[in-house]
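pinging the channel bc i need a second pair of eyes. not urgent but kinda urgent?? the chain im working w is below, pasted from the shared doc
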Amino acid sequence: MSLPACWQLFTRLFPLSIAVAAALTACQSFPSNQDAQPQSESASDSASAAQPIQFGDATGELVYEGQPRTYHLYTPKSYRPDRPMPLVLAFHGYGSQGKDLANGSGFNEIAAQKGFLVAYPDGIQRRWNPLDKSLTGVDDVNFVPALIAHLKHIRNVNPRRVYVAGVSNGGFLVQRLACESSFHIAAFTSVVASFPSQLQDSCHPQAPIPMLMINGTADEKVPWQGGHLFYGSILSVPGTIDFWQRQNNCQPSARVTDRKRDRVEIARYPKCEGGAEVELVTLKGVGHVWPRGGSGPTQLLNGSEEIWSFFQRHSLGKKDEG
């Protein structure tokens, strides 16, 4: 298959529509930069490290495989260079950019309250490649540890508390990273995404995987039931949870709680190998969105708060305290 044909197949396999990206931006309810006007980080690690710390929003760049890669970085006012701080990497969906997820997810507000760094990388041509580099010529899987190393050079990052979250196309990348990067990422969250069927046989994490998934039962882009769709084959949402339960040797029974008059169901499998856990947040009747909280049928849950609550229970080399 030619590269253009493969690329066309890929864009169908992991889609997030422009309309969803626009909706993420439209739902912003507070300024994206509460502390400072955006200023650019240096493209050079050494030059960046020598610059005064920019609180609030900043943009940055590093070169990976000869190509400039950009990101947005939020640094809360509570950051101190002499104290390591947790880091969350948040991956946007197809057709979007890091700034859209920064504006639409509310993660910066949570980071300011709780004290952690958030980086929003930009995918090349507004998309991520969660599969093999040969498909698109872009190696996003190995770009992630390079980005983490870069961010550790310009900020004092707690190496035991690095986390990844992603929405749709970015969520599929997170699922792949869980297969590859358990040795330097403490916990993983995918929103409106599931597991690509073709990765099942090659997924061999080096350590148990704390995995949180947030999915809507009415999602037409990433259907709850999964299956062989026109853009590729994906596991169902329950099938993806079962996959990670097996990987982590979890006990089969879940702790289930309901919220919002049973519109939100949270099933948590806490007794997994190595202190890992698997959690599924089911949004009943909700489609392909990042839940933001507030009122309305698609805003039953503050996704960023739920994600951080999950992340802070986990660190590398430390058993789950929950």
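so The two ends are 48 Å apart (CA to CA). and The chain has a mean pLDDT of 83. — does that match what u expected or am i reading it wrong
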